[in-house]
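Annex B, item 7. Sequence and structure tokens for protein A, then protein B.
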Amino acid sequence: MTAHVIVLGNEKGGTGKSTTAVHIGVALAHAGFSVGAIDLDARQRTFARYVENRADFARKRGIELPTPETVVIAEETPESDRERLIAQIGAFARGKDAIVIDTPGRDSVLGRTAMAAADTLVTPLNDSFVDFDLIGQVDAESFRVKRPSFYAELVWDARKARAKVDGGSVDWVVLRNRLSTLEARNRKRVGGALEELSKRIGFRVAPGLSERVIYRELFPRGLTLLDTAAIEDKSMSHVAARAELRELIASLNLPMWETEAEPARMAVAG
């Protein structure tokens, strides 16, 4: 089976994109799949730094942690950017089950090229109309969707490019990250707008990761919620967060997850 390409794309910062990307990559590695990862934000290198912290922690503790093989691609020129990314995807595709690509939080040739190569495009959004504006505009009074926004147009272009190259399709999943338990009215309005827009431009809405201190605490050690043996200060918050992660991974409908459903789910649930 050809490697399944999962691209994390969003032009807004602070949505948990890189954290989500790392957890998806590590979840697949924990389940026994061979995973390649490409960090396209050479300036911040959040994904790459997470993996470096992970390798350092594992070395100091003398333990093994399932980890995606990770490379960083920096921007140079538009043409070389495109060629180098396509070449890296091709190199990983020959030996990996999945490729996770973390794109920059801005428009770029690297980001557009990754989107056009995606089998699954994941766009995390904070649960607010500030973030919703990335993909759609709403009426100020009724909160009904008026029109798709600029990022939705980029995805449309990427889908056309993908279909032109190999006839493939891009499964677009919008994750509702950092859901608030207090602003019930806002949650309902944002949810309604997402459902309305999803029918117009073709994406699926899925539950993401909540706002939890645990994600920030795990970064310096490069750990994820799946590294239970290495986490010494486990709490009920960890249990709830792991349940969220399992639901997130299942909602992506990844082909390898369906093919090897039981072993994969048991590995992540353990």
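Protein B:
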Amino acid sequence: MAQDPIGGELWRVVGVTVPVPYALAQGTTASFWNPAQVVTAPAVAGDVIQTPDAIAASGLLAVVRTGSGRLGSWGLELGQVDIGDIIRTSQTPDPEGTVPVYTRVVGLTWALTRGSTSVGATVGGHDSRLDQSDVQHWTADVGVVQRLGDVLTFAAATHFFYRFTTSDASQDLYAAVEWRACHGPLWTGSGDAALRLRYGATLAHGAGTDHEVGLGFDLGSLVAVDGMLVRENTYGNIAWRGVAGFHVRIGRYGVTFARDAGVNDVGSSYRVGLEWRLK
């Protein structure tokens, strides 16, 4: 049971590259953070994440999703995070192999939008390994996004939820609000641009509440730039970090690049994502 949180912790390591509060994440792979997504077409997407050498963790997240129908949209999620360079030694410094550390998840996700409300749910199976300890369990998550026009958006979601407690380090509760502060064309024919202010919180994981404050600028659905400052409270230690992301859409294709600023001179993590909408 002591190794049970390893899966949640590894996903937090690569999750630092998400440049918006988790509850407000949008897009095909964003269903991993909040299953309540607005779905307009079938899509295939993948994210690759790399952390600095001091951590040496890498992650892969892939999602295949149907279009929106009368019963909503369905999708399949596949994800893995691993650390591959932990060396095993015994009585001498000479390496005797590596220590396996990884987590894997396979999930089925569903989302439905009616009017200004989106709801979603994800059921996932997890396999986490730390040396000789191997833990498997199932999780069931729900999410909701409520929009008040295009001015205010409220969102909440559970993440890796599998038992009723607020002190389990392997699961989280996300909550967030977004305010569209201003909008309008930048120049004649430019399309509608918007500036959005965001606040989010990550809690119920037994280690204090993390606070996220950020802003975003988007030019319709073509270009989006997001930035966020995060105050993390983990096991009694307070840390501040920044993260920024850029997204551009060309026809059916979307490309995302994100980077966090790192903590305590450890270095930055990077995420590159590609999305293909079939319609």
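Comment on protein B: The longest strand covers residues 133-148.
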